[in-house]
Amino acid sequence: ATNEAGETATETVLIQIEADSSNSAPFLVNTDDVQGVSGRPLQLQLESIDVEGDAVRYFARAVGDIPYDVVVDQLSGEVVVTPPRDFVGDLSLQVSVAAADPANRVDRFDRQVITVRVDPLGDFDGNGVVDTADVDILCTAVTNRSDDLNFDLDHNGVVDFDDVDYMLGPILNT
């Protein structure tokens, strides 16, 4: 370093670098809340980072008083949530990641709680209610012979006028 008078000074510093001997836990990449439909499976993909590149395992479970199905592939992080039929509202899903090796798993879970917003079956415009706009959207899908099974309300594997009948009957009670 040089001061204003032009004088210089130097200092020698000894730095010792050692290898990191600790194995840090993996952590989840933040997962946004998700939106699904009553009675329909919803897939989401968990992602994580492990600084050392170690193998990880994923976990997921339903949280709260509403029972619903949760299936997780511990290796890939794919989670399938199936809200109850006729349920509308918010569900809480706890997801976590841990080291695959149990020796590295002592209190080393990273957890997040994801909100699963469940809309009614037939709410195609996502406004939270099934109304005439949704009937119009469904009729357009049927007329255009859509193969999008989100419009298959009666679960017969085909988008057809039976789905319109199902919307007008069991869903809208008209």
Task: Write a structural description.
This protein is an alpha+beta fold and 174 residues long. It has two helices and nine strands, in the order βββββββββαα. The strands form three sheets. It has a four-stranded mixed β-sheet, with no helix packed on it. Strands 3-7-6 form a three-stranded antiparallel β-sheet, with no helix packed on it. A two-stranded antiparallel ribbon has the order 1-4. α1 packs antiparallel against α2. The longest helix is centred in the C-terminal third of the chain and has 12 residues. It starts with 26 loop residues before the first strand and ends with a helix. The model has no long low-confidence stretch (mean pLDDT 90).
Descriptors for this entry?
3-stranded antiparallel β-sheet, alpha+beta, elongated, 9 strands
Q: Between the first and last Cα atoms, what is the distance in angstroms?
A: 85 Å
In percent, how helical is the residue content? 10-25%
Shape annotation: elongated
Low-pLDDT segments: none
Strand content: 25-35%
In short:
By secondary structure, the chain is α+β, with helices and mostly antiparallel strands.
